[in-house]
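Section 3.1 - Work completed
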Amino acid sequence: MLKKRLYILCICILAGTLHTVAQNDTSISDSSNIAKDSTRKKEAEFKTENPVLKSKKTKKTEPGKITDHSPRKALKLALFLPGSGQIYNKKYWKMPIVYGGFAACTYFFIENRSQYLRYRDAYRLEVDENPDTQSEFADQNITPQGIAQRRDQHKQWMELSIIGIGATYLLQVVDAYVDAHLFDFDVSDDLSMSWQPNFQPGLNTQRTMGVKISLNFKK
């Protein structure tokens, strides 16, 4: 009888021990899951607060906004074909200015070159010491020195026209490159400027008149 009681007591003690161990395992598992969830939540919050860690694939852009506008591409286009950089930047109104500059400089180059050759040949005829050859200015009382001065003047203007063509080319390249950098620059009505006369105290209690300029940033 005593053995039976001891046997039952041992079974109860063993069952209680197993139940306690099971509860401990469950609590440890629950604590581990809570810790993992907390860690994941903190990592998600950290990535949200740090845009550098965000994936480029999740970057959202506004509808219709161009984000891949390349200044280098605008530069290459302008170098290859004048005016194409302005078209790439969607500044179509600059095209007539670019080609108008080229047309004007080219016209003055052709005109001044023609006059330069004209006065150059006339000067050669005047100083060749051959009485049988006369220039077209022989009956206009223009001395060889006057012809030489006009020749040099048109030569200078011809060279300036060439410089103008090169300057127009370089300006349209620079304009296309800089304009491409400012393509996504937001110019809104949040910035306003106003000016008004202002009087500042000066020496001997005299006031100095000036202009006051104010920049206002609206929210």
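Second construct:
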Amino acid sequence: MIERLRKAVVALNALQHQGLIESYAIGGGMAVNFYTDPQSTYDLDVFILVKPDAARKIISLTDVYQYFKSQGGTWEEGYIVLDQLPLQLIAAGSALEHEAVDRAQHRKVAGVETRVVSVEYLAAIAVQTGRRKDREKVRRLLEEASLDRRALEALLKRHDLYETFKRWELQNRD
């Protein structure tokens, strides 16, 4: 698995170096594993920043997909599969996701530099997404990760997610 992840990180770094994306950060379950006891995850979620086509104001991922295809990647059921690792590329759409990419932590995977969404932003994005598995992700991060609670609460307030977070905490006590 680590070799597959390394290959994906090398490809993401190449996309950024070639200017096909502005920046990226690993998110989702794989990012949570950087901060907590590792758990199995199916795919690699990657938040990307892409410049819109200036003339049409639309975001095109065609060149990104073509790059992965040139590296042996295939398109399967909404994922780019590279060396048997499904990648879900998520164009950062909300202000929170943009900030998460901009403020991502630098980490190494098998000796290769990468960027990972910080623990506070992972928790905030999970609150924003709001699925059952996201609630579990927030619980794990609060219990296992070195999380700055004040920074998280300030982030949630800034993005109008604090009340949702407080409701989740109350429900978890029951």
